[in-house]
Amino acid sequence: MKHSILKLSLLSSAILLTACVTSSPTGRNQVLLFDGAEMADLGAKSFAELKTQEKINQDPKVNTYVQCVSKQITDTLGKQPDFDQWEVVVFDSEQVNAFALPGGKIGVYTGLLQVAKNQDQLAAVIGHEIAHVQANHSNERLSSSQITGYGTQIAQTAIGTTEYADMGMAALGLGVQYGITMPYGRAQESEADIVGLHLMNDAGFDAQESIALWRNMAIASGGSEPMEFLSTHPSNETRINNLSDELKKLTKSSKQHPNCSM
Description:
Strand order of the largest sheet: 3-5-4
CATH topology of the largest domain: Zincin-like
Number of strands: 5
CATH architecture of the largest domain: 2-Layer Sandwich
CATH class of the largest domain: Alpha Beta
């Protein structure tokens, strides 16, 4: 058993040593096991699969509006190293949601347009989602899951078949779930808020509208958001406070305010 533990420990150490350790846009250290091309390919394949499962909106006005807001932001990023162009798709769904994937894929659900009341509020959401991509959060999450997998193997070997195995693994599972492998942890969400705020501002949108957007989100949730400790997102109050603090440091872009309308 000791030999197995040693082998797994060495394997985990080798993964960490060969990983790319970088700093996120806000200076937070990240361990990235995958290169940009791998993540772009994964994002493209996932997006293609999603388009076969979800209903795609065909309204020209809605699509032109969402694409206009998205393009204003993506144009500020310049040429990307791992894909040629951004693809924006609007999905018919009551979900109040949007996402961006590595490989330049952006999805917006029509339900979001009921809560993001204007182009600036929509830009706050799209900027936030693009920030996840720019900050390598998918890579970071996938890398953490990979490393966690090896860590779990070590723990399983160490626990063995004692009567406490189930209890021990349950406790470890809870720690893993809320500490590492939950989709986009609170640190990543807060980081995407800040980076996304700068992205929308650089594109000429009114960054102050990000506050109004998250207030709308709070109203839309009906006050039913989960406890912050067990949530992948910061609480609405925390999010608004963080954005308010960052807005005080922000220098308004000289770029003309976009004119995207529906």
